[in-house]
Design brief:
Blueprint lengths: L5 E4 L5 H12 L3 E6 L2 H13 L5 E5 L5 H12 L7 E4 L16 H26 L6 E5 L6 H4 L12 H20 L6 E5 L17 H12 L10 E3 L2 E2 L3
Parallel strand pairs: 1-2, 1-4, 2-3, 4-5, 5-6, 6-7
Antiparallel strand pairs: 7-8
Helix pairs in contact: 1-7, 3-4, 4-6
This protein binds NADP nicotinamide-adenine-dinucleotide phosphate (NAP).
Length: about 240
């Protein structure tokens, strides 16, 4: 069993998750790139190997599938003795044009299944390994679109972006951050929500002026907090975001 710092990022085969894996590997972490498709995960690992990162591997994990999560946990337990960082990054946009008055329950359920229930069940399963770290950190990759304060502010740049299912899923994810931080307030575990900003990835059809690299840098900052760092908060690149 290795005794270096370890990290697991869900949905790390591409986009912001992949860049987060790269940056944590550059900091010397032994990184597991979660991927629901094994081949895509292996391709991502190969790409990192080509850049000189060797302490990286893939872990097949579909965050909507309990059996897949259990299998991934059992597999990871055979490879590492503790988990220092969990990044709940896997996410989908769903049907983006839908307003609350017309959005289908199927779409809402589907988006929450990945973005909220997925993060909840992955966290619950991997806590066993996180407990074995001296300073466990969890980052929930959220969005400013999940901030009810910003959603209610007509002056806010993205005020018209009322993507009901997606935004609601991130508000719910933020609730997980607050509740877990409270549950673990007397422990060394720190958990925060991070908004990477509007980033050009598959999820946005490559719209957005920010690069995955920029979004990943914010995630990595809160994944590697020292003991004086915050917990139970919501951050973007500029600082704290209102819930
Ligand atoms: N891009 C933005 O502007 C932006 C802004 C704010 C927040 N975010 C958040 O950032 C995170 C990463 O998004 P991204 O922009 O990097 O998008 P992306 O390039 O589409 O990456 C999403 C990742 O999530 C994975 N995924 C989706 N469903 C999954 C499931 N059921 N199980 C496991 N993995 C699953 C995808 O895997 P496949 O390749 O198999 O589909 C992919 O690896 C998301 O949580 C997103 O909501 C993005």
């Amino acid at each position: 069993m290795k005794n270096v710092k370890t990290a697991l990022i869900t949905g790390a085969n591409k986009g912001i998750g992949f860049e987060t894996a790269k940056q944590l590997a550059a900091l010397g972490y032994n990184v597991y790139l979660g991927s629901r498709n094994k081949i895509n995960g292996l391709k991502a690992v190969k790409e990192l190997n080509k850049l000189g990162f060797t302490d990286v591997d893939t872990l097949e994990i579909d965050v909507t599938n309990k059996k897949s999560i259990q299998k991934a946990k059992e597999e990871l337990k055979t490879k590492i003795s503790h988990l220092d960082v969990l990044v709940n990054n896997a996410g989908i946009a769903g049907e983006v044009s839908n307003l609350p008055s017309i959005d289908s329950i199927d779409n809402i359920r589907n988006v929450l299944e990945t973005n909220f229930f997925g993060a909840v069940q992955v966290t619950q399963h991997f806590l066993e390994l996180l407990y074995k770290s001296n300073a466990p950190r969890i980052v929930n990759v959220s969005s400013e679109l999940g901030s009810l304060t910003l959603q209610s502010d007509p002056e806010w740049e993205f005020y018209p972006y009322k993507v009901f299912a997606y935004n609601t899923s991130k508000t719910a994810l933020n609730s997980l951050t607050v509740m877990l931080a409270h549950e673990f307030k007397d422990s060394t575990l720190k958990i925060n929500s991070v908004a990477p900003g509007y980033t050009a990835t598959d999820l946005t059809n490559f719209e957005g002026e920010r690069t995955p690299n920029m979004g990943a840098a914010v995630i990595v900052k809160y994944a590697t907090l020292d003991t004086s760092g915050p917990t139970g908060k919501f951050f973007n690149e500029e600082g704290e975001v209102h819930w």
